[in-house]
Amino acid sequence: MARKKEPERTPVNQKRIVEVAKELFMEKGIESTKMDEVAKQAGMSKSTLYVYFKSKEEIVDYISLEAMKYLLELLKTSISRNEGEKEVTFHDQYMAICHAMVTYKKEYPMNFQAIVEEIRVDDESLKEKPILREIFETGEEINQFIIGVLLQGQSQTDSNQSSMEGFIAKIFAQWGSIYGLIVLADNKESYIQKCMHLTKEEFLEQGFEQLYRTMK
Amino acid sequence: MARKKEPERTPVNQKRIVEVAKELFMEKGIESTKMDEVAKQAGMSKSTLYVYFKSKEEIVDYISLEAMKYLLELLKTSISRNEGEKEVTFHDQYMAICHAMVTYKKEYPMNFQAIVEEIRVDDESLKEKPILREIFETGEEINQFIIGVLLQGQSQTDSNQSSMEGFIAKIFAQWGSIYGLIVLADNKESYIQKCMHLTKEEFLEQGFEQLYRTMK
Amino acid sequence: MARKKEPERTPVNQKRIVEVAKELFMEKGIESTKMDEVAKQAGMSKSTLYVYFKSKEEIVDYISLEAMKYLLELLKTSISRNEGEKEVTFHDQYMAICHAMVTYKKEYPMNFQAIVEEIRVDDESLKEKPILREIFETGEEINQFIIGVLLQGQSQTDSNQSSMEGFIAKIFAQWGSIYGLIVLADNKESYIQKCMHLTKEEFLEQGFEQLYRTMK
Amino acid sequence: MARKKEPERTPVNQKRIVEVAKELFMEKGIESTKMDEVAKQAGMSKSTLYVYFKSKEEIVDYISLEAMKYLLELLKTSISRNEGEKEVTFHDQYMAICHAMVTYKKEYPMNFQAIVEEIRVDDESLKEKPILREIFETGEEINQFIIGVLLQGQSQTDSNQSSMEGFIAKIFAQWGSIYGLIVLADNKESYIQKCMHLTKEEFLEQGFEQLYRTMK
DNA sequence: CATGAATGAGGGTTCATTCAT
DNA sequence: GATGAATGAACCCTCATTCAT
Predict the structure, then answer these.
(1) Does the reported pTM lie above 0.70?
(2) Among A208, B83, C59, C68, which is least packed by CB within 10 angstroms?
(3) What is the CATH number of domain D56-215?
(4) Domain D9-54: what homologous superfamily?
(5) What is the 3-state secondary structure (H, E, C) of B137-199?
(6) Residue–nucleotide distance: B30 CA to F4 C1' (Å)
(7) Which residues of chain B from 89 to 118 reach within 8 Å of chain A, CB to CB?
């Protein structure tokens, strides 16, 4: 009755396309990656790409969603990993989030910017691309998760949080700052090395700590 | 007696092209702006564009340099404007820098990202595009200026700065954070409005203050 | 059993493009032949051209190699054709070469000049266009073949050939002269007809005989 | 009464344009020489070019005529220079012509090919470009001159010249051969050096001698 | 499903030439 | 005469996408 291959919802080829596309997007950016290359690298004909994806944009969207899901999962894992331990401090959680972001950028550099971008969803495009809703919703979930974690941590540390909204703004600002810090560290790695004698990781560690202090 | 057209160094059309190109780059990005559109908007034929600029890239480079110079000037002006006043605090100067950045993004959004990007200058391209050197050097000048200002301010506040390099790293981290904050505020303005009941400006003000605290 | 499409190594369209391009190059020269025309004449869209050849230059190179190979084959065939006969004189072989050249120009007029041109092959372009090496090597092979044939013939006729180098120079000079003769005959055919009452072929015959005499 | 500057029929600028154009045509070929470069090199505005010449083609034609006249003059001079001497052999004159050709190519490389090309003069183009007639006529004059010289020489050497036409054909063939020889020597100079250990001049000398022998 | 084959719709760039001043 | 300014008409090339098989 049931089909045998139930778990393989996405055919092997679809997976391969996404895999290859992601790889290429990482290396040379989305714009510079041509469908020709994706096809060649994936070892299939260009037409086959279009069997699985209606357009290049759809591949991009697909990967965007994947990225979002990955980040959400990453955050959840990072946080929960701490849970077994005796004393999970706010500091630990804050750092866990930061490092999750770093990992995320390593895995999805071409989607890193998305975390500070508004996902525009006019009804028009939503009709034709329901995937956008998913992306948007996952983004929101990430937002809520972060806020939740930090809110909880905050109450441990600074009980004098009068306004909820003010606190969210604070978190949001953190979010932007972390984003900027990571972008900078990545782009100017060699400059940092040369002028400050720090590895990218060391620089980030200091930066995160600096930012952490503003949370308190 | 006096020569008539002495001051008009850059021909009217060149100015117009840059003006129009900048406008379009702001609106739709550099890649999406076609030379056709620039020509049309500027009210001249496409060929005429190429009388004044050898290529699209040259227009982009020209505007990049303009942007860099603009930012440097902006920073200098912002800082010196305070000088007349009785007491120019470190806080004032820090905020001046932040606001200069905001203004800069308003004027050159398509070049905002450049401030956290490495300007790659292989000898090859430098030979053919001396403008790249100018861009690079202006970028360095900006770096030095910022460091200079904050260093001076720092010594007022926190005299216990042992290592120079460590301090520069701190400033650099600030730089990245401010960048991220502004990007976020711009992109998510409506979200901020909706969820936090803050204008973009208010949000930024709070964010800058938050960051400022880490400097001390 | 037997594979169906094995022999069709070059796709039909590639062949067609080369065919058409060659035709047009012959008629109006390479420079004056536009890709638009090639496409139109070949009955396909301009983009399709670029499926089979990366650039116009590549078409030109392809035809150049084809031409070289054609000439080499032609020379070999012309010479060997005589072999069955009782007595193959040096004269026969000399004339065979001359006529091969005439045929070659008829088939590849736009490549005729190449036989007196140096094939410049800097390492740069050789890396990116390995076809250049093939062209060059076929050219060398032609040289060697000619020298071989005439050297052999020479020893029959004039056994008093002291220096090898001097002999090669002699052959080389012949080569240039034959080239010039053919070019002239082709360009001034009507003039020759009018002033000398000779067909192009008759004129060439006489010319070749005249040159032949200098070989002895 | 008479205008003062009678001899300066061609204004200074016209001369300069031709001079510069010729220089550039020599260096990089006619096609590759842009009007922009001519103007710049000539130190005048592009528009000024068009004051003196209706089109690029007109410059080319002008130089073509100049070249033809130069060659005619050169031939005449070369031949007459010998006249004072006691015994001007046919050999001397033949060589004089050959060397005149070499000199001609040195001075007008871009017009060298013209000597074996038919000057097409349909009535159409002749109406609009009377210069073509001049070019054509000078070409004819060159032809006649050569024929005259060689005819005269011939009668000294080989009195058994039955048919005039046959003789002209012979001369014509020489003409083509000399042309080819010079082209080859120029293009393959380094090859000649490498393989035959001859300078271009030595190679040509031998080649000319070789050809000369066929005249007898 | 998979693909070979083909292409429409541009995109940036070039250059001889014109014309008002 | 001389020129500054402008351009029309091409030209080569690119690439996401389609469709019959």
Answers:
(1) yes
(2) B83
(3) 1.10.357.10
(4) Homeodomain-like (1.10.10.60)
(5) HHHHHHHHHHHHHHHHHHHHHCCCCCCHHHHHHHHHHHHHHHHHHHHHHHHCHHHHHHHHCCC
(6) 30
(7) 116-118
